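A student in our group prepared the protein record below, which I am reviewing. This is what I was given:
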Amino acid sequence: MINNETTPCLTLYGIKNCDTMRKARRFLEEQGIAFRFHDYRADGIDSRRLSAFVDTLGYETLLNKRGTTWRNLPEELRDNVQDNASAVRVMLEHPAVIKRPLLCAANGHLLAGFSPSTYLTFIQENV
């Protein structure tokens, strides 16, 4: 259960209807870890924050090239993603291509993707 009496020191970024997002949210809730959910579609993402994520993890980590959204983008647009700035532009325009979930600790540390063991380690080290 999410502890609403405690200010969450974790933010989970993603898209509400993603299966992996559901697994991550359920895991955090079952562990009793307080977190705030940030939905890219409902809440948006500003370029400064996204650029900071990309600077920390690299665009190759955050750009989900395995999903349908990426595959449905025009080939020319996909081919033009060659650095952090061009990747951020595409991710801002098409937030579904941002890898999810992205777990962010209050200290700025980030974890892309989901697995129970890496979440436990990340939480122990950052919360």
